[in-house]
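Replying to the earlier thread about multi-chain prediction with a worked example.

Input:
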Amino acid sequence: MKTVRNCFIRFVLAALACAVLSTTLQAADPLPSWNEGVAKKSVLQFVASVTKKGSPEFVSSGDRIAVFDNDGTLWAEQPIYFQAFFTFDRVKALAPRHPEWKDRQPFKAVLENDLKALAAAGEKGGAEILMTTHAGMTTEEFEKMVKDWLATAKHPRFNRPFTDLVYQPMLELLAYLRENGFKTYIVSGGGVEFMRPWSEKVYGIPPEQVVGSSIRLKFEMRDSKPVLMRLPEIDFIDDGPGKPVGIQKFIGRRPIAAFGNSDGDLQMLQCTAAGEGRRFMLLVHHTDAEREWAYDRKSPIGRLDKALDEAQRRGWAVVDMKKEWKRIFPFQ
Amino acid sequence: MKTVRNCFIRFVLAALACAVLSTTLQAADPLPSWNEGVAKKSVLQFVASVTKKGSPEFVSSGDRIAVFDNDGTLWAEQPIYFQAFFTFDRVKALAPRHPEWKDRQPFKAVLENDLKALAAAGEKGGAEILMTTHAGMTTEEFEKMVKDWLATAKHPRFNRPFTDLVYQPMLELLAYLRENGFKTYIVSGGGVEFMRPWSEKVYGIPPEQVVGSSIRLKFEMRDSKPVLMRLPEIDFIDDGPGKPVGIQKFIGRRPIAAFGNSDGDLQMLQCTAAGEGRRFMLLVHHTDAEREWAYDRKSPIGRLDKALDEAQRRGWAVVDMKKEWKRIFPFQ
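Result:
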């Protein structure tokens, strides 16, 4: 009889533990860094609606695709895109091997931190810097460069690693969606191979769920070992009207939720909205100059103008960072 | 005391059910259509080794990426690639709107089933047919064409839907790998949008895990609805040296297992083999003219020559379909 009693006690304890755990889970706020407001409420309602079996808006787990822009949506993008910091640091690292750069634009401008001269070099100058720093090595060598850079580089304003400048409320949102059977993707104008080395560690998004801009790759045998060389040619620009194209190419089905912060995300949100059934579109509006930055319609980086109008017209969620986010960065 | 007894009885029954289920699972052969031979043994050993916690060859679940060629590896590819049947049927369906095709090559050849004239039209003729049948519509319209075709088209030899001509042993292998935490991908020279409409239903592989050749897409607003137009331009050829490129572009990490059947898969297998730790490479060798087809070094479709030499030299698994597969197709 002793065995029976022991088994029974264990059984009751286990049942109790389950009950307690389930109550705790129900009570816990999945988005603690979001103030109670329209945006938070609409996210929670959307997820409840598409995950409730039997609901007319139910979406099966495989079709729960959520896409996130990166720069300005998941991490900061001021005063310039973080990949630009990487690029300029690469120019400086390569400079000793290129003494001619001291007198040659656009490299001279980078070495002298001369933003005016850099702007004057225009798109052509930018492309030259990009190809010099991002091509001519294997994919593995490039991955190492990104990791090495992230390990030491610091953001000039916050004096912290760039991967610290991710938005705490968005980390919570990513985790919350995944707990509810969503597959979360990055769909960014940034370089795909610049994001993949750290996206899983920082966002919980594995490399295969990162869609981004790319340069061409070429298969080669080097010392009888196969490698992929990065060529100085654009392969794909995953920005603006390129984002729905990237989603089709890489995911092959229409997302039911899309998150962005700029006009470069407009078409991605339009495409998401155009599907049948319940949809969720959200824009992050940078309104907090103190804790982060405040910018929208006139910013050269992350301009939010047409998309803001469309969001207001169509009732998409717009998060006012200053009012609706208790915390911006995890370290704050 | 009655409640205690009831609970206990339920508890014991549940425990018993678990024990029985677990024994059944252990005893069941995960690859029943594979004869006991070198190939089957090596697959089982590989999976056991990379999934055993604490084993020096253990691979974490996220890195268990397995890539499969499609034509000739997961489904048949004779007497011509199945996508070619689709293409020719599209030409015939479009012909009434193009009376001029009756006298114009390469369309005339297709309409008259004149394979010799078709071959004479060469690559240029093939590209013209491809672009005429695969471009000029939205991605959604194309998806519908593929689904409609598959619903009625029959393979000329077996008089069955093309999706019946998948290899039962490979279906078992896909399921077995997934049960062991692998993510299974198609990496095919075929059109990605030709495979995605049915890959999940037939193979259990969702659209986002299909890598293939593609034509360019363009975002457009049509009646204020966003659509993606298929343009008559090649975007990416996922064959031969293109396969490792496709893997890097779409998956972003090196597979630990690769399955193919032709020289077009050689570089994919080489790249998989070149990674660190335990790897598994397998070639399907078509040796069964009776139940399927027998072809290798001299076949214009699915030629297996260099890859066969390399497999023998490097000890990759080679499956002799005739000897090692009990069943080829599920219907047999």
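The longest helix of chain A spans residues 2-27.

Feel free to reuse this layout for your own posts.
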